[in-house]
């Protein structure tokens, strides 16, 4: 499951600093009213308006993670997204959902894919999830959890692989992420982490072929 080390950086994004600095330097009189109306939320202490219950992946079930387990952001404007990190929950789907809703858990991924292919989104892609155990990777990636245990290959079902591949392909298309193993990685490959997921039973060759096929099909 996602790293338990809390991403302690709570500062505003780079673009918020730039906008705030610009407004202070030139004064609001020099900024067009429509520009201010669009950029006001980038100023310190202001959150971009959200549509409650909105999902980034059509068909996903929305269940909100605890605000303690992610950081509000506006990716890819403030942090570019160029990576997907693959995880395994080390438990059942609903236990993972409950963990990500727990503020004391201090970690959560954007998505969970169940053995039955059901996709649950818990954090918007524009926000920074605490899933990789590495601040830089958190800021640049989308985290996908998979229901099951790393030592149980039977947990990685056909419908799970297929659903996750469609999800990953959509993410790659949205942000122009190359469909390769440099940009779609396992949690174990994140520098500084002590996790081993998705483990030796995760079929990377199969998964990447499915992602590539889904990416081509949606194109």
Strand content: 5-15%
CATH fold title: Lysozyme-like
Q: Which CATH architecture would you pick?
A: 3-Layer(aba) Sandwich
Strand order in the sheet with the most strands: 1-5-4-7-3-8
CATH superfamily: Peptidoglycan recognition protein-like
Organism: Streptomyces antibioticus
GO molecular function: N-acetylmuramoyl-L-alanine amidase activity
Enzyme class: hydrolase
Keywords: Cell wall biogenesis/degradation, Hydrolase
Overall description:
- The chain is built from six helices and eight strands; from the N terminus they run H-H-E-E-E-H-E-E-E-H-E-H-E-H.
- Strand 4 and strand 5 form a beta hairpin.
- The chain has 219 residues and is α/β, with parallel strands linked by helices.
- Helix 5 (158-175) packs across helix 6 (204-218).
- It has one domain (61-218): Peptidoglycan recognition protein-like (Lysozyme-like, 3-Layer(aba) Sandwich).
- The strands form two sheets. It has a six-stranded mixed β-sheet, with helices on both faces. A two-stranded antiparallel ribbon has the order 2-6.
- The chain is 31% helix and 11% strand.
- It is globular and about 40 Å long.
Concise structural overview:
The protein is an alpha/beta fold.
Helix and strand topology:
Elements: H1 14-26, H2 33-39, E1 61-62, E2 70-71, E3 83-86, H3 93-101, E4 111-113, E5 119-121, E6 128-129, H4 135-140, E7 141-146, H5 158-175, E8 184-186, H6 204-218
Parallel strand pairs: 1-5, 3-7, 3-8, 4-7
Antiparallel strand pairs: 2-6, 4-5
Helix pairs in contact: 5-6
EC number: 3.5.1.28
Catalytic activity: Hydrolyzes the link between N-acetylmuramoyl residues and L-amino acid residues in certain cell-wall glycopeptides
InterPro entries: Amidase/PGRP_sf (IPR036505), Amidase_domain (IPR002502), NAMLAA_amidase_2 (IPR051206)
């Amino acid at each position: 499951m996602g790293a338990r080390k809390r991403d302690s950086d709570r500062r505003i994004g780079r673009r918020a600093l730039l906008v705030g600095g610009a407004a202070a330097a030139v004064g609001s009189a020099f900024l067009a009213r429509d520009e201010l109306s669009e950029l006001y939320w980038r100023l310190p202490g202001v959150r971009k308006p959200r549509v409650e219950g909105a999902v980034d992946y059509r068909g996903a079930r929305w269940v909100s993670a605890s605000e303690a387990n992610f950081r509000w952001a506006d990716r890819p404007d403030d942090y570019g997204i160029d990576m997907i990190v693959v995880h395994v929950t080390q438990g059942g789907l609903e236990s993972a959902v409950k963990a990500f809703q727990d503020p004391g858990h201090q970690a959560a991924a954007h998505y969970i894919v169940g053995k039955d292919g059901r996709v649950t989104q818990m954090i918007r892609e524009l926000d920074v999830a605490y899933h990789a155990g590495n601040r830089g990777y958190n800021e640049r990636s989308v985290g996908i959890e998979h229901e099951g245990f790393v030592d149980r290959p039977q947990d990685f079902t056909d419908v799970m692989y297929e659903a996750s591949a469609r999800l990953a392909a959509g993410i790659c298309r949205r942000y122009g992420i190359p469909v390769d193993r440099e940009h779609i990685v396992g949690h174990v490959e994140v520098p500084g982490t002590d996790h081993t997921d998705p483990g030796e039973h995760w079929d990377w060759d199969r998964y990447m072929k499915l992602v590539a096929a889904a990416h081509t099909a949606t194109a």
